[in-house]
Amino acid sequence: MLGRTLLAVTALTAALVIPxxxxxxxxxxxxxxxxxxxxxxRTLSLPVGQEIRVRLQAVxxxxxxxxxxxxVVSATDVLDRTAGRTTxxxxxxxxxxxxxxxxxxITAQRTCTPTRQGHQCEHASLEWRVTVDAH
Length: 135
What we know:
15% helix; six-stranded mixed sheet; 2 helices; elongated; mainly beta; four-stranded mixed sheet
């Protein structure tokens, strides 16, 4: 009798336990995509809902310092920039969500400032660009 009671209690307990949610495969697929200086020129194919983090670092060298403007998007119905800023060190960052289907570009301007007396930058400004095809 004790054996049947324990078995019944075990079965009832198991039935009352709410199973934890299985890992969502879509959540893993939608992990944030991070774009950096070296991502320039890339074209990405991303699903709606995907998070994008842009993290651009200032570059120093050869008597020059290259700093960034805040990244912007070309089609706000496709990409929604939820945050954007420049950093005190000359870098820039943006958080972007894929909001709809279509194509949009993320761009930022890299501007040169001479750091050595008499030095002139070959290019005053260059554009960083990533194209996103959203589906």
